[in-house]
Amino acid sequence: MPKRILIDCDPGIDDALALALAHGSPELDVMGLTTVGGNTDLDRTTENARCLADYYGLVVPVVRGAGRPLVRAPRTARDVHGESGLGGVLLPPATTPPDDRHAVDFIVDALAAAPGEISLVAVGPLTNIALALHKEPRIAEWAAEFVVMGGSYTRGNNTPAAEFNIAADPEAAAVAFDAPWRPVMIGLDLTHQARANAEVRTRFRGLGRLETELISPCLDFYGQHPSYRDGGPAIHDACAVAYVIAPELFRTAPARVDVETWGRFTSGMTVTDFAAPEPNTDVATDLAADRFWDLVTEAFTRVAEHLPA
C-alpha cells in the first residue's frame, strides 16, 4: 500500500522537481500540498504549486499558508530561483480552483483524521509547521514521520552558517525541532551528494515535454548560480521526498539539533551534536547517489508518460 504524504513547500525550482518525484512514485499517495512563503513570496509559491499540480496531473488540494516568518521580516531566494520562483519555466495558468482553507488547519485536520498514517515532509521554511504545532501539539504524535529539507552540520548557503529554509524563520525551526517527535534532517551535507551534473542530465533525455518544458529550464536556470557552477545544481527538496520512498538509500546518525536564533553571525544555524546523550533528530549523512538518480529517473519517466494534454 502506498505511503500517504503531505508536502509543505515553497515552489521553487527544486520543489518543482520534488513534486514530480512524489507524483511519479507509485510508493506514495500525495494527499495534499501546503504552501509557505520562502523561495519567493506566498502568492507566487501558491500559484506555482497550483500550476505544477495541474501540469503534472496531480489532483490534490493546494492550500495556502503563512506568508511571513513568525517574528522576522520575510526574505526570499529569488537570487537562486528567479522572480517567479521557477526560473525560466513558463507553465499555463492554474485552472484548479484555489482551496479556501488555511494550511495550518489542513495539516492539523489531516493528521488528526489519520494518526500514524501520513508522512509530513517540509521542504520550505518551517512557519506552517510551527503554527500547526502551536494550534495542536499532538500533531507530533500523529505524524507517521516528519522529514525536513533544511539545515546542515558543516555549512550554510544563505549565510556561511545557515541553510536558507532554517535561516528564513529560525524561530519556527526551533519550535519544530524542539517538538516531541524525531525529525529526519535532510540537510546540505546530504543534498550536495545529489548534484544534477551533465552525466545525470543524460538520464532525462527522451522525456519529451517534461524535459524540454520543465526539467531542462529548471536545471539550466538553477545551474547559473555561482554555488552550482562546479558539479551541477543540487536538487535539495527531492532528497526529502526520496527519503519517504526509499529510506534505505540514506545513512542517518542520531544527533541533538538545536536552532540558533540569536547569533549575530550564526542565526539559523542548526547546531548538531552527534555525541549528545539525548538525541532529538536523525541526521542524514550519506546518499546512495546512483540508486537515488535511478529512483528519480523512473518517477520522471512515469510523469512524462502521463502529462495532461
Automatic annotation (TrEMBL):
Pfam families the UniProt entry points to: IU_nuc_hydro
Inosine/uridine-preferring nucleoside hydrolase domain segment(s): 5-294
SUPFAM superfamilies associated with the record: Nucleoside hydrolase
Entries under InterPro entries matching the protein: Inosine/uridine_hydrolase_dom, IUNH, Ribo_hydro-like
Coiled-coil residue windows: none
Extent of the signal sequence: none
Keywords for this protein: Glycosidase, Hydrolase
GO terms of molecular function: hydrolase activity
TM region(s), chain numbering: none
CDD domains: nuc_hydro_IU_UC_XIUA
Record-given protein name: Nucleoside hydrolase
Lineage, top ranks: Bacteria, Bacillati, Actinomycetota, Actinomycetes, Pseudonocardiales
